[in-house]
Amino acid sequence: MSRKTLLRAAVAAGAAVPLLATGSLALARDAVRSSTDRTLPPTPFCDDGDDPTPDQMEGPYFRPNSPLRTDLVTPGTAGTRLTVSGYVFGRNCVPLPGVLLDFWQADNAGAYDMAGYAFRGHQFTDASGGFTLRTIVPGLYPGRTRHIHVKAQAPGEPVLTTQLYFPGEPRNGTDALFDPALLMNVRAVGGGRTATFDFVLDVDGAPGPDPTDPPTDPPSGTWTAGRPYAVGDRVTHGGRSYRCLQAHTSMAGWEPPNVPALWRSEP
């Protein structure tokens, strides 16, 4: 049985699973100190033969064009504060920078904002493959346990659509979509909670093209969803010209004006 499988079973049962001095179980981002005060190195799960992060259905509440932000909480927001952090790895344990993560979830009352963009936002992993999301614990609604939706796309790779779950929830056992492989590691901190989760995408982690490399010439033309773009590609959209900064496969909602990390406006 792999380390990830053991962790899933322990977390599903509500057990606390620290990183041990013997090097057994931990999230890829977690580290604690041993009795000798030596900081133990993180132990990624992507090296133990497990599958990449499983996908799940998108559901009816996804909206494109989410704002670029890491904090979904505004003054006066109701609900228990939650910080979700982690890393995105390739299947060979290499951290992936520049991965687009698009999150959406229900509010404290279990409702999705379909008119605006409350509790919706996208971000990109940093140079170390890390991300942080500040939000609240989502509320419940009929038929589902608590969950957070996410789309993840490494530059130039397919989109992973999945959901993240909370351990110890009574509805985990009755939700037909619930997957223990997608449980976050959640801890109470003060009046809020922190959660960690590491994505493993079904890609080989390798240094990608440098967005500062000399730009290439065409292909060019009108921006189109569903097309792979390379660094330096030029497109037009809404009467303006843009140059691609990171290789990616385009999708509705990621038009050049909406994702400045992917496209730079040019005169």
UniProtKB/TrEMBL annotation:
It comes from the Bacteria. Residues 220-266 form the Chitin-binding type-3 domain. Residues 33-60, 204-231 are annotated as: Disordered. Pfam families: CBM_5_12 (PF02839), Dioxygenase_C (PF00775). Belongs to the intradiol ring-cleavage dioxygenase family. This is Dioxygenase. Gene3D superfamilies: Aromatic compound dioxygenase (2.60.130.10), Carbohydrate-binding module superfamily 5/12 (2.10.10.20). Residues 208-218 have a biased composition (Pro residues). The lineage of its organism: Bacteria, Bacillati, Actinomycetota, Actinomycetes, Kitasatosporales. InterPro entries: CBM5/12, CBM_sf_5/12, Intradiol_dOase_C, Intradiol_dOase_core, Intradiol_RC_Dioxygenase. Keywords: Dioxygenase, Hydrolase, Oxidoreductase, Signal. Residues 1-28 form the signal peptide. GO terms for molecular function: dioxygenase activity.
